[in-house]
Amino acid sequence: MLLHDQHAEELNRLDSALESAVDVDDEAAFRSALEGLLAKVRELGECLPDDVLKPSDAAVPGDDATLSEVKDLLVGSDEGLIPG
């Protein structure tokens, strides 16, 4: 999925909400924030052809990601899941 820089502010706001939920181990807030972030990525992102492989700065977890898994993704990150 290709995300354009023009959407960075909106995506970072959603990413921050997800980080906040993870920081306080709030499962309900985490699930809501994850669903919101994924919905926005799907709305704003452009699908790449199957034969295109590009590096990414973003680490967007799947629908079924757990709070613990996302916490592990955030370890050592000072920019969250979506840098910018």
Quote the distance from N terminus to C terminus. Answer: 17 Å
- Percent range for β-strand residues: under 5%
Percent helix: 40-55%
**Rg:** 13 Å
The number of distinct β-strands equals: 0
Question: What does the average pLDDT come to?
Answer: 89
> What is the overall shape?
globular
Major sheet description: none
The structural domain count equals 1
- Unreliable stretches: none
Decide which structural class fits the backbone.
mainly alpha
**Count of helix runs:** 3
List SSEs in N-to-C order.
Answer: HHH
What does this molecule look like?
The chain is mainly α and 84 residues long. It has one domain (5-74). The chain has helices at 8-23, 27-44, 67-74. Helix 1 (8-23) packs antiparallel against helix 2.
Structural descriptors:
84 residues, mainly alpha, 50% helix
Give a brief rundown of this model.
With 84 residues, this protein is mostly helical. The protein has one domain. Helices cover 50% and strands 0% of the residues.
Write the layout of secondary structure elements.
Blueprint: H1 8-23, H2 27-44, H3 67-74
Helix pairs in contact: 1-2
